[in-house]
Amino acid sequence: MVSLSWPLQAPPPQDMRWLAVEDASAVVACRNAGLAMASRLHFPAARADSLALAVTEAASNLYKHARQGALLLSVNRDADAPGIDLVTIDSGPGLRDVSAAMQDGHSTAGTLGIGLGAIRRLADFCDLYSVPGHGTALVARFWPVSREPVSREPSIRSAGLIRPIAGEVECGDAFGVLRTDDAVTAVLCDGLGHGPLAAAAAAAALAAVLGEPASEPVTLLERAHRRMSGTRGGAVAVVQVSRERARFAGLGNVAAFILSAGSRKSMLSVPGIAGYQARAFRQFEYEVPPGAAVILHSDGISSRWEAAAVPGVETKDPLLIAAVLLAEAGIHRDDAGVVVLAS
């Protein structure tokens, strides 16, 4: 018998709020959005205040010091009681000393200021990644009741991010992750176009894969192709990771990489459009070294990003890895989606 864990999936529109931080009024908008989400999830008043303060600090840092800053508030349903993930990304200028910037009271020209230390104290989890001359990404997690760090994490951790194209509420990119006894299966679908019809195509792909994830990736990909018939179709990639090996099958232009020790190795997809055209389905197997990250992303993130530009990022929390790639190579005129499996 195969035992399953609850799937990790891209949040629905009501569980996710992206906000551009380009002027002072955006700081208030971010704070209010955080309080509204905390109220909907029935956070205790003191915990909601902590979230609001952290959001205010994060948004203020973006406004004062960053370029093209954006802040995400997303419901996290990994536990019995939902929490809130706070993510910020920007396009620069980056930090010279990340460790110093995370300390209370540290503020020098060219850094993000003193708020980062406060965010780290207020959050249940917080981490930041930055390289001078590149973007910065921050991830913080808040549970309704502050909890001790989990002492035993799964051997393969997972997370993902989606961002709809400007002007749309629903995202045509979607991801899902499900664990069985001996493997972790992840799927990413980039539905053709944008908006509700693209989102419906992606949802059909996820339902096909996550409904019975014990099959091999090539079988799951074929099933997704059949289920997407009658939708707009899209690009789909499926990967299974176990025992330092990855089995991969992709159809269309979802990019897939293994990032390890400062280098990246591409995983091969075949041409086609799931739901419409597929001349062949093929599965490939790859070695996944210890400490590596397996990454799938849509063409809303340029595949031209270089491992050298994000040194050591594969050692970070999977959600932070996803945020770094969105900051480094995200394309604003398209839906964007990324899912990360990290050992």
Question: In a nutshell, what does this entry contain?
Answer:
This protein is an alpha+beta fold. It has 7 helices and 16 strands. Helices cover 26% and strands 29% of the residues.
For the sheet with most strands, the description reads: 6 strands, antiparallel
| Strand percent estimate | 25-35%
CATH fold title of the largest domain: Phosphatase 2c, domain 1
CATH superfamily of the largest domain: PPM-type phosphatase domain
- First-residue to last-residue Cα separation: 25 Å
State the order of secondary-structure elements, H for helix, E for strand.
Answer: EEHHEEHHEEEEEHHEEEEEEHE
From the alpha-carbon coordinates, what is the Rg to the nearest angstrom? 19 Å
Helix content: 25-40%
Average pLDDT score: 91
Strand order in the sheet with the most strands: 1-8-9-10-11-14
What general outline do the C-alpha atoms trace? globular
Name of the CATH architecture of the largest domain: 4-Layer Sandwich
- The CATH class of the largest domain is Alpha Beta
Query: Which regions contain 5 or more consecutive residues with pLDDT less than 50?
Result: 108-113
